[in-house]
Design brief:
Blueprint: E1 10-19, E2 22-30, H1 33-44, E3 49-55, E4 61-69, E5 74-81, H2 89-104, E6 117-119, E7 125-128, E8 131-134, E9 143-151, E10 156-164, E11 167-171
Antiparallel strand pairs: 1-2, 2-6, 3-4, 4-5, 7-8, 9-10, 10-11
């Protein structure tokens, strides 16, 4: 599979905390199931892959993605299970299972070893019963990946820029061409 493009990678808050320098936020990279579907269509053609779901005896939902191999004249299947999300439990579980099965087909593997995105400055926090949360949740609306460079041989993100409103807010890019 081809590496993910910057516009296919989403960014969300991973954790919020406080240290001696003030508040900080870590950001996580992810993709949605639409990206997996698009990549499967591109790589194999719309009619040459399929997905199916099943629950095992413990009630865990599994998704299997099958790709047709014309040389063997058979379907090759890879599967994985999903977990419920905090919103729309069943839909989230199905989406997670699909994305995990997509990972078995090498979709988005670069996200599992992404750099630590740590934003220390200018974050206002308030305490809640569990620790800290953002005082103003809209501080991180519109955060996106503006540039990514992926080492195709090792499936690793080597350079990354995170932006908001057209301004780079985090980068590990040494020199941009």
């Amino acid at each position: 599979m081809r590496p993910l493009k910057a516009e296919e990678i989403e960014v969300r808050i991973g954790s919020v905390g406080q240290n001696k320098n003030g508040g900080y936020v870590t950001m996580l990279l992810y993709k949605d199931a639409r990206v997996d579907r698009q990549m499967l269509d591109e790589e194999f053609g719309r009619m040459n892959w399929q997905d199916k779901y099943r629950r095992d005896e413990k009630g865990i939902l599994f998704c299997s993605i099958g790709v047709y191999d014309p040389d063997k004249n058979e379907w090759i299947w890879k599967e994985d299970c999903g977990t419920e999300s905090n919103t729309e439990k069943e839909k989230g579980e199905a989406s997670d299972a699909f994305k995990r099965a997509g990972f078995r087909w090498n979709i988005g593997v670069e996200l599992y070893d992404s750099p630590l995105i740590y934003l220390p400055a200018g974050v206002k926090l308030k305490q809640n019963g569990y620790g800290y949360e953002l005082a103003n949740k809209s501080d991180f609306f519109g955060v996106y990946v503006s540039y990514v460079n992926i080492d195709k041989e090792n499936n690793k993100i080597v350079e990354l820029e995170i932006s908001q409103k057209g301004n780079v807010i985090w980068s590990n890019v040494k020199r941009r061409k």
